[in-house]
Design the sequence.
């Protein structure tokens, strides 16, 4: 090969290598046309984007990870700042949420600006997606104990942690809410936006508040539905008990089931007491093997099922669940517990986020004190903090959990029957937001009802994002429709 050809080849190699390196550095965003299809089969033009960010910004040798998002372009002539949707969980997918029941809301908000369905680090289409392969494997023919459930979950957690850290070389310590907040700042810069607005629910509000604290000048407006403040990761037993009391009043007043259940809390206590003395043994069919399986249902099983579904749409089945149990029918909790005992353990991202957020010593003491005086104790937080022993996430500290103060305009949305993120959560954090509005929805439980239980909610969100006064701050949603007590 002649000298000139060697030089040209070397130059070409250098240019190629430079181009590859340039495409694989922090801050690189790639956006391509994309046809978005929702769960109902409806299609709409969109853009699919990826953004490279450091896994751990304090480490100069950090891996780069890929964040995914779908952008729905604004229908406005003069769009406002992009609106970024933050899913709950932690571990939920923003892109997944856009494909479901909230799809019309994503479309409606395009009236304001571009709407971005964002997959947070470790979730959805972002890479890596930190799902765990392990499943629970607990004996179901003996009465389960908290220790036995914890042991099974710890084993799966240790296996998942080993897989991601040792085999995949992922720095799990980088998966915390502070890093995720900085991801949003990097996304804003990559999109060339002076500011972004945040639209969040549940854990997404936890992330939104952290982002407002860390990058206040970058946030135009924020919608926080089902507020989980920086020190709200662990639920207060008193809030759960109040929800049960509120639910009992609704049940007593219900024309269909009120006569049969005039004292819902008394019914619950009687079922718990009976199972505590003598667990029930129920034969069910394993849906996979079609074999008969004997399940032992005790007080912990009933507490766990209720605590993990409280304040959601499943709440409507609680009266029937407990009424039938009081009649000796435990077939439903037996089937649910069997499914739980074989389910996947979840996501490393979810565990790391919650364990890192932690709780203040004051809140821990309050939970321990209140647990002794309430029907569900601290089961609403189980398996936390027990499971954090396996993940060993660095605690973000009390500075992270301190109150947030900001002039950023915020619309808080709360449901009166949302036990997971009660009205009091939003009221507590509103104190630091002088430019805030609180929309309270009567009868609304957690998740979809905070957005979809009344058309007035969408109207209020649009008013807020336009900088207008929110017309309706007290909305009455349809009452809960309880399941029939008798089969």
Sequence:
């Amino acid at each position: 090969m002649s000298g000139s050809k060697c030089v040209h080849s070397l130059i070409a190699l250098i240019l190629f290598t430079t181009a590859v390196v340039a495409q694989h550095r922090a801050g690189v965003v790639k956006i391509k046309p994309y046809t978005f299809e929702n769960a109902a089969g409806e299609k709409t033009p969109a853009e699919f984007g990826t953004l490279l960010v450091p896994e751990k910004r304090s480490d100069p040798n950090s891996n780069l990870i890929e964040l995914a998002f779908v952008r729905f372009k604004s229908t406005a002539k003069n769009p406002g700042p992009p609106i970024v949707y933050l899913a709950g969980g932690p571990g939920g997918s923003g892109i997944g949420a856009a494909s479901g029941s909230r799809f019309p809301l994503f479309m409606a908000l395009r009236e304001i600006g571009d709407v971005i369905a964002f997959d947070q680090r470790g979730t959805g289409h972002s890479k890596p997606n930190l799902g765990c392969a392990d499943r629970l494997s607990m004996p179901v023919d003996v009465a389960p104990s908290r220790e036995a459930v914890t042991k099974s979950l710890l084993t799966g957690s240790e296996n998942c942690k080993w897989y991601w850290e040792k085999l995949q070389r992922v720095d799990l310590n980088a998966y915390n809410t502070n890093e995720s907040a900085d991801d949003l700042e990097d996304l804003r810069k990559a999109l060339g936006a002076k500011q972004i607005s945040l639209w969040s629910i549940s854990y997404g509000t936890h992330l939104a508040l952290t982002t407002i604290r860390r990058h206040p000048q970058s946030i135009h407006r924020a919608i926080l539905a089902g507020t989980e403040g920086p020190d709200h990761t662990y639920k207060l037993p008193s809030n759960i008990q109040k929800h049960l009391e509120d639910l009992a009043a609704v049940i007593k007043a219900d024309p269909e089931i009120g006569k049969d259940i005039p004292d819902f809390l008394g019914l619950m206590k009687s079922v718990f007491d009976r199972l505590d003395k003598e667990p029930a043994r129920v034969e069910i069919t394993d849906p996979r093997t079609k074999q008969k399986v004997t399940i032992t249902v005790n007080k912990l099983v009933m507490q766990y099922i209720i605590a993990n579904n409280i304040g959601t749409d499943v709440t409507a089945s609680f009266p029937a669940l407990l009424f039938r149990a009081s009649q000796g029918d435990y077939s439903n909790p037996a089937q649910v517990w069997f499914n739980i005992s074989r389910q996947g353990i979840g996501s490393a991202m979810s565990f790391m986020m919650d364990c890192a957020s932690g709780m203040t010593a004051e809140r821990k003491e309050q939970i321990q004190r209140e647990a002794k005086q309430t029907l569900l104790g601290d089961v609403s937080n189980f398996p936390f903090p027990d499971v954090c022993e396996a993940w060993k996430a660095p605690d973000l500290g009390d500075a992270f959990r301190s109150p947030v103060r900001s002039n950023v305009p915020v619309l808080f949305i709360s449901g009166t029957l949302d036990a997971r993120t009660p009205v009091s959560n939003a009221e507590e954090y509103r104190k630091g937001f002088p430019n805030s509005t609180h929309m309270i929805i009567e009868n609304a439980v957690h998740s979809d009802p905070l957005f979809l239980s009344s058309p007035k909610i969408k109207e209020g969100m649009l008013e807020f994002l336009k900088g207008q006064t929110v017309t309706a701050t007290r909305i009455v949603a349809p009452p809960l429709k309880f399941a029939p007590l008798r089969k």
